[in-house]
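Look over this one:
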Amino acid sequence: MSAVLNAAFPVFALILTGWLAARFKVLGESATQALNRYVVYLSLPALLFRAMANADLSQLNHWGYIGAFWGGICATFLLAFLPLGRRGLALSDRTLDGLAGAYANAGYMGIPLCLALLGPASLPPSIIATLLTACALFAVSIAIIEFDQHRDRHWTGTLAKVARALARNPLLVAPLLGLALAVAGVHVPSGVDHYLELLGASASPCALVTIGLFLAQTPAASGRGAVGRMVFAKLLVQPAVTAWLAFRVFDMPDVWAWTAVLMAALPIGTGPFMLAQMYGRDAGATSRAILVSTIVSVLTVSLLVAWVSSHPLA
């Protein structure tokens, strides 16, 4: 329980800080856009680049684990993405719903939680889950949104426009450059690495404060059904599907299997909100889904932690 509270409290407290800053006029509406652009174009790319550049490629070659965690992501994405009762919703908005339903708060909550509960052996699978969430899932979502926004022309022109947009997107370029350095065996100089570490460390707190600002500056969202669906998909469906794949379909050590389930059970991270802001889409439902899932996860993840603690690892 203490591990959950220690991981969840800072997330909720930072959102509350942003909300209070807006309510007491410490930060205005311009701060929301400025902070979000800082995260999207500076701090988050630095975080993703450094994670990939310093990744141990040998530890990433666990296809059973990747299949279990990615399978849970895909199932949950589709559940939140499908236009059930929302026929008129744009493809971009449905993609953001799907992203929110599958995007775990892996880096900020997941890694500390797994280390506290499962020990150092959980660090490699935690990093893989973070990369699949922040890089692979993000890349797929951005590609769909770009296609939706540029499909009014011939398909060759659409593909060319999407390719150019993706090539300029820092959230995709940064991790790909980091991966290229890791594959080539090139090490980032220590001074540059420390600079990237400092810049990347600001991504989560700035994004969470931005969510609080946005919540305080926007009226109550009408899409309660969408919020409920995203929260249900993230906190219940994704860990259930991941657990079935990890324990019944694929073969892996218990520590890896439980890490996959714990990472899948985390609340929604800030990525969907930042992407909605970046593309000028309505971020009201997404921001509330992040807040609600974070609060509810104190109960759901606590129950999961108690369940994991009662099962000795093989």
Notes: The mean pLDDT is 81. Residues 199 and 288 are 27 Å apart (CA to CA).
